[in-house]
User: What shape does this take?
Amino acid sequence: MPQFKRNGLHLSYTDTGNVDKPAVVFSHGFLMDGSMFDTNIAVLKDHFRCITWDQRGFGKTGPVHQSFDFWDSALDLLGLLDHLEIASAALVGMSQGGFLSMRAALLEPARFRAICLISTRSGVDAQPVIDSFNHLKKTWSNNGAGPVAENLRTLLIGEDFDAAGWVDAWHKIPRAGFDHPVEALTGRDDITERLAEITCPAIVFHGECDPAINIEHGRSLANGLPNLKEFVTVENAGHAPCLTHPQFVNRPLRDFLLRYTG
Assistant: This one.
C-alpha cells in the first residue's frame, strides 16, 4: 500500500476506482482497516474514485506512540486529500470513521460534497462504556487480544459473519501503543451542538441490532443534520452493516453518492 506522511507519521492508503469520477474517502471503524469497505467499493468503483486509508494504530499504518484525538485524525484525512491533490470529495465514515469524518466536515465544510455516516454518533459515551474501554486497554496491554477477541467480534462485527480474518489480525496488533487509539475513542468531545454546521447532503445508516452504538444514537444524529436525505435502518444488522450486510447498504449508498456528488 502507498503511504503519505503527516507530522512525522506514515499513513497507508489505497486509491482505486475511476480517477475521472468524484472522489469518495472511506474511513473505517475501531480495530478495523480500510479493507472493511472492499465489498462496497466493488460496486462503486466504476462510478467513483474510491480512497480508503488505515487510521493511526490500525492496518498497514500500524501502532503509534503518541497521543492523538479525532480532530488529529480529521487532519490526517485532509492531509491525504492534499497529498492526492483532491480539492473536493464525499465522505463515508463507519463508527470512529464517522467521528473523524464529521470533524473533517467541520474543519473544511466547503471541501465536502456529501457525507455518509454508518453506525456512529455525535455525542460521547456513558461512563460504563468508557470504563469498559479502559478495562480493554489494560487487558490488551497485559495480554494482547487473546482474552477479549471473541467479545470484540460480537460487539464490533456480529456472530453471524465469518470474522476469522479480523480476529487473526487483532492478535497481531502489538500491545505497545494500543492505549492511544482507545484514549482517542473514550476522550472524544461532544459535537452535537455543531451538527447544524454540517450542511452538505447526508445519509445515515444504522444496524437495527447494533450492540456498540444503539440505533437511537443514530436517529438522534440524523435528526441533527440539517441536510439529511435519508436514514437507513439495516434490519438484523449489528455494528458494521457495510461489512456484514452490504446487500442492503450498497444500493442506497450508491444512489445517494450518484445524486449528490455530480
About this structure: The beta strands are 3-6, 9-17, 23-27, 49-53, 89-94, 112-118, 202-207, 228-234. DSSP finds ten helices and eight strands in the chain. The radius of gyration is 17 Å. The first strand starts at residue 3 and ends at 6.
